[in-house]
Records
---
Amino acid sequence: MLSWRDTLPALINSGYRTYAPDYPGYGNSPPDSNKKFTTDSLIHYLEGLIDYWGLKQVVLIGISMGGSLALGYTLKNPKQVKRLVLISSYGLQDKAPSHQLSYLYLKMPWLNDLTWLMTRKLRLAAKYGVNYIIRNPQSRTESLIDEVMEAMRNKDAQIAFNQWQKDEIRRDHLKTNYTSRLSEIEVPVLLIHGTHDFLVPLKYARRAALLFRNARLEVFNNAGHWTHRDYPEQFNKLLIEFLEQ
């Protein structure tokens, strides 16, 4: 709900059967002690869920890390995907912002623990984090801050996300980068990106739009990494129109 609270009602009211799973360790989903949290393992979970639900074809909508999972799933299961919606998607960039600093940050577990502790305990720290990914002041509500602080109290999520980051951020590159394979994807793709996304800079979405066979890029002015929560009404309208085409 932290990711999709503003979008789920729009999809359901438009008549779409909608699934929004919490991956292991997130939300109320227990962690998987038998597997490390990597992009490949998360794609495996997604394959298992879609198979369990008995879905023959799906539209995948992913934000950030979820975008890379949608891309990876589509490349492995091209006949099962009808359309792709990628919001501020990971899996399109060569390096993380301030890549060397990000790499060093993950080598200092105490600093990572301090970041999570401050965000779950100090409202000011949570607000600072939200301001970094949501640019629209009207969308940075007190209830959203409450949701973020609650999510950060989940220590299983901290472990899962840290494992994923350590696996992804290598010394001089990112492990998952689908750029060279985007031309293999034939289904319609909607890319949505904010002009002020500092985690996945807009230039990577612009490059990806040219590499897909059938892609459309929509840029939201003065939006950050959570474009869909920055301007939910604009996003939902665009999404429903894309699904109905």
Note: The domain at 8-244 is CATH 3.40.50.1820 (Rossmann fold).
---
Amino acid sequence: MEAIALWLVSVVHGMGYPGIFILMFFSNALIPVPIEVIMIPAGYLVQQGQMNFFMLITCGVVGDISGSLFAYYVALHLGRRVLLAYGKHVFFDVKKMEMLDRFFAGHGEISVLTGRLVPGLRHFMAFPAGLSHMNVKKFALYTGVGGGVWMCVLIGVGYVIGGNRAMIRHYMPLITASVVAAVGIMIVLYIIRHRRRKPEKPDVPV
């Protein structure tokens, strides 16, 4: 992993902002490379004055959305046919597809937003969104917001302690746990708000 991180630093340093865009695109479209090994070194380059924070965020978010849209459209146009044809082999049938559609119709925005903040899950949010035909504008918006927040956190880590790999290894689990806890709180608040907004069933006269 350290060798990969060093290679990514060289790519970012050598290709600059286009390198950030390309790495973020492929990270979300084809190869789920952890965003940590892209943005923490980039944050260190910001601290060194070799990159601009706002340009970095812009290229990162645009690459993030572009790669996610690529995966979204693959799932939109091919995923449903493939799953309906072969899904029974992985216990995914028409009923589960309908459940997925209903879930994303009602909770797609919060699912994408919070999913983009969870390491390991963020790379795969485009597929269920595309399968369920989630509104593409909303998908792009919440992908960009969630991805942008996590990038800012990682760039901040790289800016503060990016030159000290031992400190990164020490603090990243704590930072990740804090973000996941914040996501959990967001989901709980969303559930409470959603339940309060549910209309009460009218009494049926006897």
Note: Residues 200-206 have pLDDT under 50 and may be disordered.
